[in-house]
Design brief:
The complex is a heterodimer of chains A (356) and B (148).
Chain A (H helix, E strand, L loop, with lengths): L2 E5 L7 H15 L6 E3 L10 E3 L12 E6 L5 H9 L3 E6 L13 H20 L2 E4 L2 H9 L5 E3 L15 H7 L4 E5 L8 H15 L4 E5 L6 H13 L5 E5 L3 H10 L2 E4 L8 H9 L3 E4 L4 H5 L4 E3 L4 H13 L1 H15 L4 H17 L1
Parallel strand pairs in A: 1-2, 1-4, 2-3, 4-5, 5-6, 6-7, 8-9, 8-11, 9-10, 11-12, 12-13
Helix pairs in contact in A: 1-13, 5-8, 6-11
Chain B lengths: L5 E3 L6 H15 L11 H12 L7 H4 L6 H4 L15 H59 L1
Classes of the chains: A alpha/beta (356), B mainly alpha (148).
C-alpha cells in the first residue's frame, strides 16, 4: 500500500507543513511508500515534493492520498481530484472563519470563505475525514461526514534541539516576559493580549514585557491597528518580533514567564505544545480546540476579564508551587503528541483503511 | 466575571482559593482609572478598530473589493498531463508529445512565471487601493455624520 499526501504548497515553519513532513517520516518508517505532492512545489523543497501532475505515476486502487486542507483549493485541483482513481482521505486542519478578515485582507477572506464552501464538495470526493482535533472532526460531522478519526499534530522535540539565540537571550533574559506565538491575525485577538498587558504593566509590574512572536505577512492593516493601540495606550515594552528563526523562537520560550493566548479560533494550537516543551506555564482563553489540546493541563479562562487575567499572570509568577504543578501537568500532556505515540495511532488508521 | 471563569485541571490546586486571591488583589489596588489615559482601554481599542479596520460585522464591505482571486493570477499551466490509453502506439505518441512540451516549456515557462508574479503584485496593489478607498469612504460618512 502507498500513502501519499497533497497540499497546495509546503513551507518552512508552518504547522500544516511540519505535520505533512512528520507524517511522511512516520509513514516511510512504517514501510509505506510516501510522496508529498504540491500544486506549487516551492524551490527550497524541490526533491522532497512533486508536482501534482506526476501523481498519475503513483495512482492505483491500492494507493491512498491524504488531502491536507487548511485553506481553499484552486478549481483546477478540485477538477484534478475528481478525475483521480486513487482513494482519498481528507486531513482537516480547520479554516479560520472568513469574517475575521473583513477589512484586513480581502484575499484571505475570499480564500477562507471558499475553503469552507469547498468542504461540501470534498465530502463527495473522499471516503473519510481525519481531524487534528475532535473540534475539527466536529465541524466535518456537522457537514455530513460519517467516517471520522482524530489524528493529532505530531510534536517532534528534535525540531527545537537548537541553541537558543544568544542576542535574544541577552535582551530578554531578566524580568517578567509574557509571550504569545502565532501569526498576527485577527482571530488570535492580539488586542486582548495588549489590554491584559496594559493592566499588568500599569498596576502590577512596571517592568514587564509583552513578546508577540509571529509573522504579520498579509495582515498589515491589523498590525497597524495593534501598533496604534500600543501607542494610544502609551504602552512601552511591547515587541512585535515578526517571523523568527528556530533559535530565536527557542530563546523567546526560554525567556518567557507565561504563555498567554486570547485566541478565539484555533484548529489545534501548536505553540501550546511548544510552551509545554519549554516548561512555560500556559494561560489560555477557552475557545475552539484550545481546551482539547491542553487536555486538562495549563490554565483556562472563560471570560476576558483583563484585570483578572493580569493578576493571574502575576500570581502564577509569584506562586512557585502553582507554577510547578501547572508545568508538570503540561509536560505529562505533551507525551500524547510525541512521534512514537502518534505513529501507533497512524498505523491503526491506515490498517483501518486497508481492511475496508 | 462569571463564577466559574477559571479552570485548572490539577486536583492539587484549589481553584476557589486562586479566584479568592485574585479578587483580593484587584480590590487591593483600588483602581479607578488608568493613569495618563483618558477613557477605558477596551473602549479605546474598539474605537480604534472601527476607525482603522471598520465594523467587524460589515463583511459586505469586503465584498465590494476587487472581484479577482490570487489563484486567477497564475497563468502557468501546472496541471497539464500527457498520458496514453492505446497500447504500443500510445506510449510512443505520449513520449513525442512530452519532448515537444518540455521544449516549449523551457522558453515559455519563465515568461509565464514572470507574468503570474506581475499579476499577483497588481492584484495586491488593487486590493490595497480598494481597502484604502473603503476606509476613506467610511471616514467621509463619519465626518458627514458629525457635521449633521
Amino acid at each position: 500500500m502507498q500513502v501519499h499526501q497533497f497540499h497546495p504548497t509546503v513551507s518552512f515553519g508552518d504547522a500544516t507543513s511540519n505535520q505533512i513532513l512528520s507524517l511522511q517520516r512516520l509513514l516511510r518508517n512504517a514501510g509505506y511508500r510516501s510522496v508529498i505532492f504540491c500544486e506549487h512545489p516551492p524551490l527550497h523543497f524541490q526533491g522532497r515534493t512533486q508536482l501534482i501532475a506526476r501523481y498519475g505515476r503513483y495512482a492505483s486502487p491500492e494507493s491512498v492520498l491524504l488531502l491536507h486542507f487548511s485553506r481553499g483549493y484552486s478549481a483546477s485541483v478540485l477538477d484534478w481530484l475528481e478525475q483521480l482513481s486513487a482513494r482519498r482521505v481528507l486531513v482537516y486542519h480547520n479554516i479560520t472563519p472568513h469574517t475575521y478578515f473583513a477589512g484586513v485582507n480581502e484575499t484571505v477572506l475570499e480564500a477562507t470563505r471558499t475553503g469552507r464552501e469547498q468542504l461540501d464538495r470534498l465530502r463527495t470526493l473522499t471516503e473519510a475525514g481525519w481531524g487534528d482535533s475532535a473540534f475539527n472532526c466536529q465541524e466535518l460531522a456537522e457537514r455530513g461526514w460519517t467516517h471520522l478519526e482524530t489524528l493529532p499534530i505530531i510534536f517532534d522535540p528534535r525540531r527545537y534541539a537548537v541553541s537558543p539565540d544568544r542576542k535574544t537571550m541577552e535582551r530578554w533574559r531578566d524580568g517578567i516576559n509574557v509571550l504569545f506565538v502565532g501569526r498576527v491575525s485577527p482571530n488570535k485577538r492580539l488586542e486582548d493580549l495588549i489590554l491584559t498587558f496594559h493592566y499588568l504593566k500599569r498596576f502590577v509590574w512596571p517592568d514587564a514585557r509583552l513578546l508577540l512572536v509571529g509573522s504579520a505577512y498579509g495582515m498589515e492593516p491589523y498590525l497597524e491597528f495593534l501598533q496604534a493601540l500600543v501607542k494610544r495606550l502609551n504602552l512601552p515594552d511591547v515587541t512585535f518580533t515578526g517571523h523568527v528563526s528556530t533559535a530565536q523562537l527557542a530563546a523567546c520560550y526560554r525567556c518567557a514567564s507565561t504563555y498567554l493566548s486570547m485566541s478565539e479560533h484555533e484548529g489545534f494550537g501548536v505553540p501550546l505544545l511548544e510552551s509545554m516543551h519549554f516548561g512555560v506555564p500556559i494561560i489560555a482563553y477557552k475557545a475552539a480546540a484550545v481546551p482539547e489540546t491542553l487536555g486538562g493541563s495549563g490554565i483556562l479562562v472563560k471570560d476576558k476579564d483583563y484585570a483578572a487575567v493580569a493578576e493571574l499572570i502575576a500570581l502564577l509568577a509569584e506562586d512557585t508551587y502553582l507554577r510547578a504543578q501547572v508545568t508538570a501537568l503540561q509536560r505529562k500532556r505533551l507525551q500524547v503528541f510525541m512521534p512514537n505515540r502518534v505513529a501507533g495511532h497512524l498505523r491503526e488508521l491506515i490498517r483501518g483503511l486497508e481492511c475496508e | 466575571m462569571s463564577d466559574n471563569w477559571l479552570e485548572i485541571g490539577d486536583e492539587n490546586v484549589s481553584v476557589d482559593e486562586i479566584k479568592r486571591q485574585i479578587r483580593e488583589r484587584i480590590a487591593g489596588r483600588g483602581i479607578v482609572s488608568s493613569p495618563g489615559i483618558v477613557g477605558d482601554p477596551a473602549a479605546i481599542a474598539a474605537e480604534l478598530w472601527k476607525e482603522m479596520i471598520g465594523d467587524p460585522a460589515d463583511v459586505t464591505a469586503s465584498d465590494r473589493g476587487v472581484p479577482l482571486r490570487q489563484q486567477d493570477c497564475d497563468i502557468v499551466p501546472r496541471h497539464y498531463v500527457i498520458d496514453w490509453r492505446t497500447p504500443v502506439l500510445g506510449p510512443i505518441h505520449a513520449t513525442v508529445r512530452r519532448i515537444i512540451n518540455a521544449e516549449i516549456c523551457r522558453y515559455l515557462l519563465p515568461s509565464l512565471e514572470k507574468q503570474s508574479h506581475f499579476n499577483r503584485e497588481v492584484l495586491r496593489l488593487l486590493e490595497d487601493l480598494a481597502r484604502e478607498n473603503a476606509r476613506l469612504q467610511r471616514r467621509i460618512e463619519a465626518l458627514r455624520g458629525i457635521q449633521e
